[in-house]
């Protein structure tokens, strides 16, 4: 019989307290789960969980409130920034975040997100960009790439008819009320680590009262892209990143001293 001495073992990872230990409804290979874990880890590390209120959008993330272990509300489609604005103004001492997809935030909710950023609302937005309407069957979204095939653009997105994809990070970064705007990707370990740093910076922006913050996360949708989970990560890297370059698009000067 072999015994293992655990006295010198070190715990290198624990399930985040801010994330419930439950099965999610997401499709296999979808990186919503990765985004959830990153948000939960940051909230635990910054000790924000007991003082936070989340706003769930309508879309693939509609059941987000079932997965995080802190207060959450559900917003009408596209209206998460408006609800977050009201909550933050009534409870300015709380950390308020929205978790939104591309259909919710940059289609029906374009006006809401734009004006929340323009007003400099001190909220944090986690924006999942998977280039399609994932919840309703994979139709063309405002973020669908030129030529990309979807259920409503079977021959590929025709920019002459449907226009060009909206680059939300670049657009919102032009607004004076924005304190931190960044785009990251969830397709490999290196970029996942960078995404976590961006999420932490976004919450730090809110903690310091520096205005609106948003992290756009390029995410996979293997089911609607008709790809395996592995092939979906390669497709994201090869097709989405060239159109949606990664990086910080706006960083408030007061954040320059951040080191983590």
Short description:
This protein is of the alpha/beta class and about 260 residues long.
DSSP strand (E) fraction?
15-25%
Radius of gyration: 18 Å
Distance between the termini: 44 Å
In terms of quaternary structure, the protein is single chain
Major sheet strand order: 2-1-3-4-6-5-7
Tally of separate domains: 1
Order of helical and strand elements: HEEHEHHEHHEHEHHE
The tally of helices reads: 9
Arithmetic mean of pLDDT: 94
CATH class: Alpha Beta
At the fourth level of CATH, the homologous superfamily is Thiamin diphosphate (ThDP)-binding fold, Pyr/PP domains
Q: Percent range for helical residues?
A: 25-40%
The total beta strand count reads: 7
**Would you identify the regions where 5 or more consecutive residues have pLDDT less than 50?**
none
**Structural class assignment:** alpha/beta
User: What's the main sheet like?
Assistant: 7 strands, mixed
Shape: globular
CATH architecture: 3-Layer(aba) Sandwich
CATH topology name, in short, is Rossmann fold
In words, what does this structure look like?
The model has no long low-confidence stretch (mean pLDDT 94). The chain has a 7-stranded mixed β-sheet with strand order 2-1-3-4-6-5-7, sandwiched between helices. The protein starts with 31 loop residues before the first helix and ends in a 9-residue tail after the last strand. The chain is globular and about 60 Å long. Helix 1 crosses helix 7. It contains 9 helices and 7 strands. It is an alpha/beta fold.
